[in-house]
Specification:
Elements lengths: L24 H16 L5 E5 L14 E4 L5 H11 L4 E7 H7 L1 H10 L4 E6 L29 H4 L5 H5 L7 E6 L3 H19 L5 E6 L3 H4 L3 H15 L4 E4 L6
Parallel strand pairs: 1-2, 1-3, 3-4, 4-6, 5-6
Antiparallel strand pairs: 5-7
Length: 251
């Protein structure tokens, strides 16, 4: 997919050039999210929170209210917005370095409190914006600029499975993992996001949608090979499935 959106029938997605690397999964996720917001008629009520990371400028591409959050603090900002404006649809959009490293405390406590927000967690197993350092989700043996011989679990531990971790909590009502590597997974991701926003609209509680996404630039792969790596390698470590579904919306 080109980073220049020449065909765009969405009222929510702005027809502007994105800063993402060509082929980046963020582009696809933005498009799916914008379609869902349009279909649910939520554009005038939506508040989008973008923290530090590759998606730091994401609010430039979505025609909704939004703001930046300090690195890792998107869940805290989203909590404040939702509690002060409970009629709004609040979306926290975060990468793996932001959410699972510096933002781990905010993530866990927002989920544990059952804040009525929707978190979209983009997992590309690496720090994308800052040059390809090892992230909390980097796979064992995966090379990065700070794990040049591959991630060593004896010295730094293994990758953190955020869906599994959050599913141990009582409060969250929807936790699921999907991906954006092909048409089937695009449709599934769109459906998961739609159900998460419907849950928030109904005041039912905290939802967390993780999306496996490529970082072909820092993985040093073509887009095709990067998406295949997600299907063949990454998904074995991070299975795409439903972890928590208290209202049975994904069954």
């Amino acid at each position: 997919m080109s980073d220049l959106l020449t065909v765009n029938d969405s009222k929510t997605l702005e027809s502007v050039k994105m800063h993402y690397c060509p082929g980046c999964g963020h582009i696809s996720i933005h498009r799916l999210l914008s379609q869902v917001i349009d279909e649910l008629g939520m554009r005038e009520r939506t508040v989008f929170i973008a923290p530090v990371g590759c998606a730091v400028l994401a609010y430039n591409y979505l025609n909704v209210d939004g703001c930046e959050a300090a690195h890792g603090r998107a869940a805290a900002v989203a909590t404040g917005v939702k509690r002060s404006l409970p009629d709004r649809i609040v979306i926290s959009y975060q990468g793996d370095g932001d959410l699972a490293a510096i933002g781990m405390a905010e993530t866990i406590h927002a989920a544990n409190r059952g804040e009525r927000i929707t978190v979209i967690f983009v997992n590309n197993a690496i720090y994308g914006m800052t040059g390809g350092q090892m992230a909390p989700t980097t796979l064992i043996g995966q090379k990065s600029t700070t794990s040049q011989t591959g991630r060593d679990p004896d010295s730094v531990g293994g990758p953190i499975d955020m869906c599994k971790l959050l599913s141990t909590l009582e409060a969250p009502v929807l936790i699921a993992r999907t991906k954006v590597t092909n048409k089937v997974s695009f449709d599934q991701t769109k459906m998961y996001i739609k159900k998460a926003l419907e849950i928030q609209n109904e005041g039912k509680g905290y939802s967390f949608i993780e999306v496996l996404s490529n970082c072909n630039t820092n993985w040093k792969m073509s887009v095709t090979d990067a998406n295949k790596w997600i299907d063949d390698v990454m998904e074995k470590v991070f299975p795409c499935k439903v972890y928590t579904d208290k209202y049975g919306v994904l069954k």
